[in-house]
Amino acid sequence: MILIHWGKKQMWYKIAAFGTIDLQKYLTEDLGEDFDVEKELLDLLNSGIDNSGKIFFNVLNDNLLKSKLKKYISIFIPSDSPGTLASYNRRTKQLKLQNLELGQTIYDLAQNIKHELRHAVDKGANFRPKWISNIEIRLATNFFYKLKNILVDPETDELKYDQEKIIFLMVFDLMRETKPSFTQLTGDIQKIIVDKTIADNIKRPDQVYEVFQRLAKGESPKDISTHYNVNNPQEYTTFLSDLDDLFSPQAFVNYVSQFSSTDQEKFINELRNALSIMSQSSVYKIINNISAEGANLLVNVLLFTENEQMKRNAYKIINKNFQEFLSQYNLEKPDQLKEAKKDYNAPRTGKKKKRWSVKYKKSINCNSPKGFSQINYCKRKRSGGKYKTEG
Predict the structure, then answer these.
(1) What is the pTM of this model?
(2) What is the span of the domain harbouring residue 366?
(3) What tens digit of pLDDT does each residue of 50-82 get?
(4) Is 163 inside any structural domain?
(5) Residue 302 above 90 pLDDT?
(6) In 10 A of CB 114, how many CB atoms?
(7) Which end of the chain is more exposed for a tag (fewer CB within 10 A), N or C?
């Protein structure tokens, strides 16, 4: 347990190494030591999602009532944010879900929900600075491209309006489109409604204005969104926790277990080299097949974060998990080698001649081979053919 001071307030904030939130530890402390977060979540999702990825919310919510997760999730409801698999409201505990698309799995959805649940247990959330939301970024982006010719000076690429004016216009346009009765109100009443909407919903007007400035300069909406998302103080621990989860020692084990020992060694050497360089392209190339979601997250952290400590911690997390995997891999390797030796020198059955032992192979003098068999063995050895000198 680590005591963290937030101004005059202090609180106990249980975190794992490098600023990650261990969701399993948090929830088992509350829901019992035998509670398996991942199993409970996957079982719940499998009960309410069909093979096409369609979510049956009535089934999911009925089964939620029987789950211990109901303490953290009040209800599952359809998402109104395209492209976002899961989003969470910490106040109402509502979890919004999106139907799975082609290529997406229930496991992917579970990872997104675990990310949101980390927000739910993050006791430091209320003490971090306010930050622009994804909704505000989308709102500003849509409004910018809708009225770009009016908002931007074509000669200088500068905005024609100041922060207060452009945000007022953006919210005014939103109210006019979403509330038909708004246009029937007097100008004074409209202004009061818009001003109140801005005060209640725009957390960081300065950052919203920055989005307009960056768009005016030609920066892509995707890069802008990623920049603010990665640098969001609320996301620091959750993103690092995602990396810890997606590239756990077990994730490395699951990936390499599908290959031959030669290919396993090749992967390990390539990953070791990529981690030593830690460039976006080299790391992405080698870890993308383990987790595409994790690889994208890591590269976004390396590219966009303004917090150098976040970069260092991302590297430490993956390297720590890789070393844990490597320790287990090296521990098991001698036994695997013994088995390989044993199997290769097992005596043949039936009428076939028994295998040569390792001792006999080493006794052969290829400068003066004796007999047809030794001559052929030495030829294969010189030509690099498939022969074994070990057991």
Answers:
(1) 0.76
(2) 358-391
(3) 999 999 999 999 999 999 999 999 999 999 887
(4) yes
(5) yes
(6) 20
(7) N
